[in-house]
Amino acid sequence: MKRIGVFTSGGDAPGMNAAIRAVVRQAYALGVEVIGIRRGYAGMILGEMLPLGVRDVANILQRGGTILLTARSQEFMTEEGRAKAAEKLRAAGIEGLVAIGGDGTFRGAMRLLEEHRIPVVGVPGTIDNDLYGTDYTIGFDTAVNTALEAIDRIRDTAASHERVFFIEVMGRHAGFIALDVGLAGGAEVIALPEEPVDPQAVAETLLASQARGKTSSIVVVAEGAYPGGAAGLLEAIRAHMALEARVTVLGHIQRGGAPTAKDRVLASRLGAAAVEALTGGASGVMVGEVEGEVEITPLKEAVERRKDIRRDLLALSRVLAL
Ligand code: F6P
């Protein structure tokens, strides 16, 4: 393999730039050229490409977002869109791809491989941490720390005003961020998409903590845990108790910022491992880190198998929130 392409797609995640840098520099070490594809699959269809040399990726290791830009492409969902993308890749002499993103990115990559025989290796880049075959995805640790810093600040005002705060964190289908942030932030209640949320039970928990003398509380809600998110849950709880409460939606603040050391190390390791795998003949797989070791998992498994949340940590958060 003499020339490979690299792109980022779907929601951006801190550490994507560190992964791009690792792809370019590991490829250089192996004598392989790298072409950067801009705007994910949308840019691939339009042939938005640029050669990436070792100096082009200088000074990006510490930067959030993605220098290659990202998008969610509707056109790539169609057969015609994928055919156009494959044609552009062939015209540019790209023999294989490193796809940095989450489940939507990997589903697209699988179609490109099936329909057009373009070898691809995935690098897990999403704040959601919802991919099987890696203990952590690139960006998750940074997102958790960003949300945690916000929660610590909110706790100050919650305590001063003797209020309950309902804090919504990202995660439409996965509660990994909510669970870690809730446990690390000492939340009284953590609402996750993976567990049924009963407003009456939450009201009872809050009433019980008030009875034990608590004057303020934090409820962490993953955006997909309850219809209407944190605001929807608060409204439902108000049917069971009166409470002085406020809602804070942390939103896209969780996707930005400089990656933590942990995310930079993970991204550097997996970006390089992806190039080694791709140039060594692997395809249709994702590189991940499991118990400290780099592991290769078929893309199909990475997106279809469910990585469950740590239910023991959820139980622990309830014990410690006394
Ligand atoms: O997949 C990453 C993520 O940030 C999710 O946590 C969130 O539900 C979604 O993307 C938001 O997407 P968008 O930025 O397109 O609104």
Automatic annotation (TrEMBL):
Subcellular location: Cytoplasm
GO cellular component, one term: 6-phosphofructokinase complex
Binding site for substrate: 126-128, 163, 170-172, 223, 246, 252-255
GO BP term, example: fructose 6-phosphate metabolic process
Family matches, as Pfam families: PFK
Catalytic activity: beta-D-fructose 6-phosphate + ATP = beta-D-fructose 1,6-bisphosphate + ADP + H(+)
Name of the top EC class for this enzyme: transferase
Domain Phosphofructokinase: 3-278
Residues forming the catalytic site: 128 (proton acceptor)
Pathways per UniProt: Carbohydrate degradation; glycolysis; D-glyceraldehyde 3-phosphate and glycerone phosphate from D-glucose: step 3/4
Keyword Magnesium included in the entry's annotation: yes
Binding-site list for ADP: 21-25, 155, 186-188, 212, 214-216
Domain of life from the UniProt record: Bacteria
Broad class of the protein's primary localization: cytoplasm
Activity regulation remarks: Allosterically activated by ADP and other diphosphonucleosides, and allosterically inhibited by phosphoenolpyruvate.
Cofactor(s) needed by this chain: Mg(2+)
Entry keyword Magnesium: yes
UniProt-annotated binding residues for Mg(2+): 103
Similarity comment: family membership: Belongs to the phosphofructokinase type A (PFKA) family. ATP-dependent PFK group I subfamily. Prokaryotic clade 'B1' sub-subfamily.
NCBIfam families in the record: PFKA_ATP (TIGR02482), PRK03202.1 (NF002872)
Subunit structure: Homotetramer.
Free-text function comment from the UniProt entry: Catalyzes the phosphorylation of D-fructose 6-phosphate to fructose 1,6-bisphosphate by ATP, the first committing step of glycolysis.
The protein, known as: ATP-dependent 6-phosphofructokinase
Gene: pfkA
